[in-house]
Amino acid sequence: MKQDRPAEKGHIGDRPVSLQVGALCLRLRDGKTQVLLITSRDTGRWVIPKGWPMRGRSLSGAARQEAWEEAGVKGKIAKEPIGEFHYDKILDDGSAAPIDVVVFPLRVEQLEKAFPEAHQRKRKWFSPKSAAKNVHEEGLQQILRDL
């Protein structure tokens, strides 16, 4: 499932690639898998909860924390990633920073109404196929199509 990386692993041109973690929030409804997407705070695009690794937490633990803060999700996260994807994060100055996101599947057990970023984001359940059509990152689209 690994996405193609630049020839010089960890770099694009002269710039280092940064690592983020993401949570692919999943549930079963009527025997069918559903994916929870949230809107990004800046552009309102559909994304998965993601953020930076956290000191004192495993990568999967950091992804679970991001799912709580950004989507109000509580559940069981896998220790092993389901895949990874790449995107360019647009910075305040308009430049782009290359980011690799390691994605961990999270089985949603509870969805809270009150969570840290509740007033900054929308959230919605999608079929994997529909979710793939609604996200912009090609690598994430592929992860969703492979569900």
Automatic annotation (TrEMBL):
| Alphabetical list of SUPFAM superfamilies matching this protein | Nudix
Keywords in alphabetical order, please. Hydrolase, Magnesium, Metal-binding
**Would the keyword Hydrolase turn up in this protein's UniProt record?**
yes
Out of the domains of life, which is the source? Answer: Bacteria
- The segment(s) forming the Nudix hydrolase domain are 18-147
Question: Could you cite one Gene Ontology molecular function of this protein?
Answer: metal ion binding
Query: Which InterPro entries would you find in this protein's record?
Result: DDP-like_NUDIX, NUDIX_hydrolase-like_dom_sf, NUDIX_hydrolase_dom
Q: Which PROSITE patterns match?
A: NUDIX
Per the entry, which co-factors are needed? Mg(2+)
Pfam families this protein is in? Answer: NUDIX
Q: What's one GO-annotated cellular component?
A: cytoplasm
Q: Carries keyword Hydrolase?
A: yes
Protein name stated in the entry: NUDIX hydrolase
Organism taxonomic ancestry: Bacteria, Pseudomonadati, Pseudomonadota, Alphaproteobacteria, Rhodobacterales
